[in-house]
From TrEMBL, chain A:
Chain ranges passing through the membrane: none
Gene Ontology molecular-function annotations: 4 iron, 4 sulfur cluster binding; metal ion binding
Keyword annotations: 4Fe-4S, Electron transport, Iron, Iron-sulfur, Metal-binding, Repeat, Transport
Protein's name in the database: Electron transfer flavoprotein
Family annotation (PROSITE patterns): 4FE4S_FER_1, 4FE4S_FER_2
From TrEMBL, chain B:
Reported cofactor(s): [4Fe-4S] cluster; Mo-bis(molybdopterin guanine dinucleotide)
Residue intervals of the 4Fe-4S Mo/W bis-MGD-type domain: 20-78
CDD domains: MopB_CT_Fdh-Nap-like (cd00508)
Cross-referenced InterPro entries: Asp_de-COase-like_dom_sf (IPR009010), MoPterin_dinucl-bd_dom (IPR006657), Mopterin_OxRdtase (IPR006656), Mopterin_OxRdtase_4Fe-4S_dom (IPR006963), Mopterin_OxRdtase_prok_CS (IPR006655), Prok_molybdopt-oxidoreductase (IPR050123)
Highest taxon of the lineage: Bacteria
Entry's Gene Ontology BP terms: respiratory electron transport chain
Protein name, entry field: Nitrite reductase
């Protein structure tokens, strides 16, 4: 089913500088109770400063929701995979294990899962999620479907596998990722 | 109004949470001055969070982790809320021994001790040491407070540790010091960016979306830095030079530009002086000779010159890496030479820019906080300039104090008892000054010290009286960002506890010193700003036409802005007129000199210092913010794996670093992103974790900037 979102979260991995503004910003979203729900990895900290954000990809057919025994994880009409409903969540952590990206976090005190809900209070009105709002490097972008199409056209590599999350990992995702090497196809100005 | 072709402002509505209002303002930290909305609870009238400010054209809602969490300092439990007095001087240098006092008692104590010192030792026995993380209004008033309120010649500011080399270099090259000749919106449209000595990704992260855009358009990025910083990681050419050799590298690149025919001869002939002398000096800097000094491979030097030379438009950008050296002003002029020789200046998308470190590093260096300078960049040594300011201040020229000494030199005068009293505002030299053992001893030597701040900083621990000042969001005023754009800071909540704005504190002291008649009309920041506008009128940095109303209406005004009708000057020198008397710029002939201290058998390594993305300056604010503290709780020393193998040390081992000035212990961070002959330590930490215990106090003869970026060091494994 086609989601109703006007825009998508788009990740340009090469741009990341590891500043972790996205983590700090996540705490500022209404309803996030000042807990961040994303990660930034140092890819190889002993070698260089390459970092990458690990964000929920909001899978079209999410393993976290499929594995939930009580249907606590709902998929919003925009395609956002929501945080577990507090009144339903058993704290079984099936979702944490099922997710191939390790996204759902677990609150040990409350025995509840919590995960990125794509700042649903913002994105349902086409306002960028907090992480993409503040991202100073345009690693995380909130772009229209037309902008996405233009990027796809520009960045398609020879093998056309430009979206890292499809089809090999968890099938189709609502969040799109550009493979590292975004500049490979860029023609230099001079 | 400026048009941004690459990143136009999108019309995104603000999110307003229930029971809250938004106050549009700017971040309190670096020179980017990112736009932000502070969330204010309408019941408690307190700041509770932050929302992006999508309509701010410079940053479009983007913030770094410091910006996102900046509001957390305002209602922080460690805020100073009442004046503190220390009766027992033996506990100086520690946080102990203070008692709470009333404002009356604190001000009485300050004024009686100030008067006593001046009666016994002369007017100049007092000093003022200030900063530029504060509004233009406060910066201006601080200069007037020192010279008219306290009547002392000794005032200087922490911009000497930050921006003074850029200021001196620009003054020599252009005749005016505005940190950027182009607005930041020009950056993504240029064809080649040459970034020298700037870890922009960590120090000015919200510049990065524009910098990456240059490459995404097919443009080139050249980075000169001893470390493979996040920006260097993706550069088309990374010039990985030895710390302290920047002048040789710039000369080497200029040599290549001239050799390979990239000089713009008609521009040079019509608009510059000094080309022939410079050409003669740089002729020795062949790629091989430059490589010998800098350690950068010759082909990289050639390639960098080729890319910069061929680019239809190019911007040279730099920061503390080249400026915090004992030849920082020369480095700035040497890099400015590249733009002048190739004529890539005085037009859109081409020019020179420095990344301003402190929030108001630009405005704060224009309004008379420097030892030798009066508002509007006027000089204390010029009788006409002195007269102009005397007319505004209502004093006679004979009453104007003579030029004093620079920031670091003031500590020398404290040591020899020339200076006996200090009023310290908005600065933390007990962390940020070089050669800390000397600086801390100098602070201990003072007969009387006052510190105005909103946290009890390491420097405040040396004070006899500590005054609780307001934070940036409890007052209003203007700052001038790294583009030269004057912007408005707005008040979001009432001051915490009994804290007061610095301008109000200084006026209260001036009144009690018997100098009230010069200050009593300055009843609010706007009145101070309007006097600043008058004082700057006709000066180099002319703010006269930049009223608060115009700043709000135009989303900032670039100086110079000389009249009500003038919209301001986003791009400098479009008429190809520079600010020297003959209208020409100076291409500067700059012989190379090495770092003040070169490695030797006893101290075989090069030590360099810098920032991490999570902390700001001395860390007095950011080390108290939980998110930022957790991300980087302590300093570290970056060591290359090959060097680590040589010393037998592993990741997270502890080592003791030594220089001729001091020693300190750091955890080891192994990384290939540092040169094998160099170690790096961030400087945001105090007490025994301060790398400034080790740094060199050799001063630039022109800017009086210490050499933070290069000294000789020894490393010893512990245990």
């Amino acid at each position: 089913m086609e989601n109703t979102a006007k825009s998508v979260l788009y990740i340009e991995l090469d741009n990341c500088i590891g500043c972790r503004s996205c983590l700090a910003a996540c705490t500022q979203c209404g309803g996030h109770e000042e807990r961040n729900r994303n990660y930034v990895y140092d890819v190889n900290p002993l070698v260089n400063r390459q970092t990458m954000p690990i964000m929920c990809l909001h899978c079209v057919n999410p393993a976290c929701a499929r594995s939930c025994p009580v249907q606590a994880i709902q998929v919003h009409e925009t395609g956002a995979v929501l945080s577990a409903m507090v009144e339903k969540c058993l704290g079984c952590q099936n979702c944490t294990i099922a997710c191939p990206y390790g996204i759902p976090k677990f609150d040990e005190e409350q025995k509840l899962m919590y995960k990125c809900d794509l700042c649903i209070d913002r994105t349902k009105d086409d306002i960028p999620p907090m992480c993409a709002s503040v991202c100073p490097t345009n690693t995380l972008q909130w772009i229209s479907k037309e902008e996405l199409a233009a990027k796809k056209k520009k960045h398609t590599l020879d093998n056309e596998n430009w979206v890292a999350s499809a089809p090999y990992l968890e099938n189709e995702t609502n969040v799109r990722i550009n493979l590292p090497g975004i500049l490979q196809g860029t023609a230099k100005l001079f | 109004m400026l048009k941004d072709n690459v990143f136009p402002v999108k019309d995104i509505p603000n999110v307003v949470h229930p029971n809250e209002t938004l106050v549009a303002t700017h971040c309190c930290y670096c020179g980017m001055q990112c736009g932000m909305n502070l969330r204010v609870n309408t019941k408690s009238n307190r700041i509770v969070g932050v929302e992006p400010r999508y309509d701010w054209p410079v940053t479009l809602g983007k913030m770094c982790p410091k910006g996102v969490t900046a509001y957390q300092t305002v209602n922080h439990p460690e805020r100073l809320t009442t004046p503190l007095i220390r009766d027992d001087a033996s506990k100086k240098g520690t946080p102990d021994g203070f008692r709470e006092a009333t404002w009356e008692e604190a001000l009485d104590r300050i004024v009686s001790r100030f008067k006593e010192l001046q009666a016994n030792y002369g007017k100049d026995s007092l000093s003022v040491f200030s900063g530029v993380s504060m509004t233009n209004e406060k910066c201006y008033l601080t200069g007037k407070f020192a010279r008219v309120g306290l009547q002392t010649r000794y005032i200087d500011y922490n911009g000497r540790f930050c921006m003074s080399s850029a200021a001196a270099g620009f003054m020599r090259s252009f005749g005016v010091d505005r940190g950027s000749t182009v607005p930041w919106t020009d950056i993504p449209e240029t064809d080649c960016l040459f970034v020298a000595g700037s870890n922009a990704a960590e120090c000015h992260p919200t510049s990065m979306f524009r910098i990456w855009a240059v490459q995404e358009r097919g443009g080139y990025l050249i980075v000169a830095d001893p470390r493979e910083t996040p920006i260097a990681r993706r550069a088309d050419v990374h010039l990985d030079l030895r710390p302290g050799t920047d002048l040789a590298l710039a000369n080497g690149i200029l040599h290549q530009l001239i050799e390979r025919g990239f000089a713009d001869e008609s521009f040079v002939a019509a608009h510059t002086n000094g080309f022939e002398e410079t050409k003669a000096i740089v002729s020795a800097f062949t790629p091989e000779y430059t490589s010998e000094i800098t350690g950068v491979a010759p082909d990289k030097i050639v390639r960098a010159a080729e890319l910069y030379g061929k680019a239809p438009n190019a911007i040279v950008m730099f920061a503390r890496g080249i400026e915090q050296q004992h030849k920082g002003a020369d480095n700035v002029s040497a890099y400015t030479n590249l733009a002048l020789v190739t004529g890539k200046i005085g037009r859109p998308k081409s020019g020179v820019a420095t990344f301003t470190g402190q929030g108001n590093g630009q405005g704060g260096r224009e309004h008379g906080q420097k030892a030798d300078q009066l508002p509007g960049y006027r000089k204390l040594t010029e009788p006409k300039h002195v007269q102009a300011i005397c007319d505004v201040w209502g004093i006679a020229p004979e009453e104007m104090p003579k030029p004093g000494v620079s920031a670091y030199e003031m500590f020398g005068l404290m040591t020899d008892k020339t200076i006996r009293g200090l009023y310290l505002v908005c600065s933390n030299p007990a962390v940020s000054a070089p050669n800390q053992n000397f600086v801390r001893a100098a602070l201990r030597e003072l007969d009387f010290m006052v510190c105005s701040d909103f946290f009890l900083s390491e420097s405040a621990e040396y004070a006899d009286v500590v005054l609780p000042a307001t934070s940036w969001s409890e007052d209003e005023g203007t700052v001038t960002n790294l583009e030269g754009r004057i912007i408005k800071i707005n008040k979001a909540q009432e001051p915490v506890g009994e804290s007061k704005p610095d301008w109000a504190i200084q006026i209260a002291i001036a009144e009690r010193m018997g100098r009230g008649r010069y200050f009593s009309h300055l009843t609010d920041p706007k009145a101070i700003y309007d006097e600043l506008r008058l004082a700057s009128k006709g000066g180099y940095a002319d703010y006269y036409g930049a009223t608060w109303e115009k700043i709000e209406r135009q989303q900032g005004v670039f100086w110079p802005c000389k009249s009500e009708e003038d919209e301001g000057t986003p791009r400098m020198f479009l008429d190809r007129k520079f600010f020297h008397a003959d209208g020409k710029a100076n291409i500067c002939a700059l012989p190379y000199r090495p770092a003040a201290e070169e490695p030797d058998a006893e101290y075989p390594l090069r030590l360099t210092t810098g920032r991490v993305v999570y902390h700001y300056l001395s860390g007095n604010q950011t080390r108290r913010v939980p998110f930022l503290r957790d991300m980087c709780p302590e300093p570290f020393v970056e060591v290359h794996p090959a060097l680590a193998a040589q010393y037998g040390i592993a990741h997270e081992d502890r080592v003791r670093l030594y220089t001729r000035r001091g020693e300190a212990v750091f955890a080891v961070k192994i990384t290939e992103a540092i040169r094998q002959d160099t170690v790096f330590v961030p400087y945001h930490f105090g007490k025994e974790q301060s790398i400034n215990l080790l740094t060199n106090d050799a001063l630039d003869p022109m800017s009086r900037m210490p050499e933070f970026k290069a000294c000789a060091a020894q490393m010893v494994k512990i245990g």
